[in-house]
């Protein structure tokens, strides 16, 4: 049975790599009799691969801290706050890393994972002081996080952002979205800005064109977002939507 299980895992992994759906996992014949197995779905195969990858995860420098933050944030799976890597801990860290575009997403609790988890855990959504009715986009410059509130309640949970670097500080204040295009060309920097939503001057929300966790690079005043967040914000935003920017990015 051990040999059969091992080959099933291999077949499941091959299904994911090949992108096939509804493929059959094939087991070797035993005692001259063919063995049939149930179809391996993409979800089941992905689970097998995730567990296999998690089993070999290394323990990072910030293991216990990251475990604590992920448990506080919730939604990433079962985490034991003991500073010891386990398959469950690693799977949760990988899920977190993939959600926030942290590379490589291999479950190691390194400095970037620690920094992102700490910032998200420290974010206080009530500090935005949103409008009681309608949509308010919130940008916390201090923690470099952003979220959306609707009718005074959290509508889209906090995610990471990267605002203006030194010399290009994103201004604090209350603004309104005054231009929206799915793809805006930036003349000064000669780059396309996907899911553009301008709220003051030449500054606005848009999908980042570089690695968002390269903090030293920063933006030129815009609010950089990961692709999935930029798409989400664009689907929610309208002309006149409120944007509240507060705090100050460290070092600016």
From TrEMBL:
Name this protein carries in UniProt: Lipoprotein-anchoring transpeptidase ErfK/SrfK
Active site positions: 206, 222
GO MF term set: peptidoglycan L,D-transpeptidase activity; transferase activity
Coiled coil: none
Species assigned in the record: Actinoplanes octamycinicus
SUPFAM superfamilies on file: L,D-transpeptidase catalytic domain-like, PGBD-like
Biological process annotations from GO: cell wall organization; peptidoglycan-protein cross-linking; regulation of cell shape
Annotated keywords: Cell shape, Cell wall biogenesis/degradation, Lipoprotein, Peptidoglycan synthesis, Signal, Transferase
Highest taxon, organism lineage: Bacteria
Lineage, broadest ranks: Bacteria, Bacillati, Actinomycetota, Actinomycetes, Micromonosporales
Leader sequence segment: 1-33
Domain L,D-TPase catalytic span(s) in chain numbering: 135-246
Pathway assignment: Cell wall biogenesis; peptidoglycan biosynthesis
GO CC terms of this entry: extracellular region
């Amino acid at each position: 049975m051990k040999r059969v299980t091992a080959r099933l895992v291999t077949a499941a992994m091959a299904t994911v790599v090949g992108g096939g759906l509804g493929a059959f996992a094939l087991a070797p014949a035993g005692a001259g009799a063919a063995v049939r197995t149930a179809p391996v779905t993409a979800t089941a195969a992905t689970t097998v691969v995730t567990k296999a990858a998690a089993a070999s995860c290394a323990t990072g420098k910030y293991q216990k801290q990251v475990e604590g933050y992920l448990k506080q944030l919730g939604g990433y799976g079962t985490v034991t706050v003991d500073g010891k890597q386990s398959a469950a801990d690693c799977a949760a860290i990988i899920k977190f890393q993939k959600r926030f575009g942290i590379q490589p997403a291999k479950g190691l609790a390194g400095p970037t994972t620690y920094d992102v988890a700490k910032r998200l855990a420290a974010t206080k959504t009530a500090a935005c002081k949103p409008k009681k009715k309608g949509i308010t986009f919130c940008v916390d410059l201090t923690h470099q996080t952003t979220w959306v509130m609707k009718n005074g309640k959290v509508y889209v949970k906090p995610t990471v952002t990267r605002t203006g670097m030194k010399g290009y500080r994103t201004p604090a204040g209350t603004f309104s979205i005054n231009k929206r295009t799915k793809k805006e060309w930036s003349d000064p920097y000669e780059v396309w800005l996907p899911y553009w939503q301008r709220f003051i001057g030449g500054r606005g929300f848009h999908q980042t064109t570089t690695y968002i966790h390269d903090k030293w690079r920063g933006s030129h005043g815009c609010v950089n977002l990961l692709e999935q967040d930029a798409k989400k914000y664009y689907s929610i935003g309208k002309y006149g939507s409120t944007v509240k920017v507060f705090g100050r990015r460290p070092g600016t």
